[in-house]
Amino acid sequence: MNEKSTFIINYGMGNLRSVENAIKKLGFNCKIVSNPEELNSAQKIILPGVGSFKTAMHLLNSGGWINKIKFNVLENKKPLFGICLGMQLLADSSEEFGLSEGLKMIPGSVKNLRNLGCKLKIPQIGWNNVSIKNTHKYFDGVNSDMDFYFVNSYVYVPENETNIIGSTNYDLEFCSVIAKENIFGTQFHPEKSSKSGLKILSNFLNA
User: Fold this and answer.
1) Domain locations in the chain?
2) Cβ-based neighbour number of residue 111 at 10 Å
3) What pLDDT does residue 2 have?
4) Cα–Cα distance between 85 and 14 in angstroms, integer?
5) What is the pLDDT along the chain (207 residues), one digit of tens a residue?
6) Catalytic residue from among 20, 30, 84, 175
7) What is the spatial distance between Cα 133 and Cα 47, in angstroms, rounded to a whole number?
8) Is 84 a catalytic residue?
9) Which of 20, 96, 175, 191 is catalytic?
10) Of 34, 125, 159, 191, which has the highest C-beta tally within 10 A?
């Protein structure tokens, strides 16, 4: 992997530095990019995110990111890793603060845990386990039912169960890892999830 071949998208809503630091800790180079045109030079792309789906989509749209992301990921098949809100943005839509369209990369919608029937405290903040449902190369060397760090009130509800790589129980079972071809996402923060999270990042960077 050559220098700065993994690009982290800075569209205004992301835990950029913690992701960057985790990648550097693993011995890889990466680059935080603020210009959509730079994605054309990427080998791998990371889409982070913390905050509101609606605001994130507005920033992606106004910043000129959407067409460039789709061109590089859907047409040129570059690997994309969506983290937390970045995973949710892969959906068709979200009900957060009214209906909003997503990137429409993996069929499904984003819904509030409370509306799905969750009676526990929302947002979910802290460690929870992930049960592996379908094998995926980014989970090589990661045991099922390992704990990862979550901060979320909304969850991805995929249309197709085949896209669910892992699920988590928080009063109800929800999709916490999703994938389709070269597109991958985790609801948890791998960069904050100790050795197991770093292993997933390492597998993505090494692939």
Assistant:
1) 6-206
2) 19
3) 44
4) 9
5) 444 589 999 999 888 999 999 999 999 999 999 999 999 999 999 999 999 999 999 999 999 999 999 999 999 999 999 999 999 999 999 999 889 999 999 999 999 999 999 999 999 999 999 999 999 999 999 988 899 999 999 999 999 999 999 999 999 999 999 999 999 999 999 999 999 999 999 999 999
6) 84
7) 23
8) yes
9) 191
10) 191
Q: Are 176 and 167 in contact (CB under 8 A)?
A: yes
- Residue (of 25, 38, 9, 63) closest to 190 by Cα position: 25
Look up residue 53 and give its two tokens.
Answer: 């789906």
Tell me which of 20, 30, 96, 189 is the catalytic residue. Answer: 189
Active site residue 136: no
pLDDT digits (tens, 9 = 90+) for 105-134: 999 999 999 999 999 999 999 999 999 999
Q: How far is CA 170 from CA 43, 113, 133, 159, in A?
A: 35, 9, 16, 20
- Is 189 an annotated catalytic residue? yes
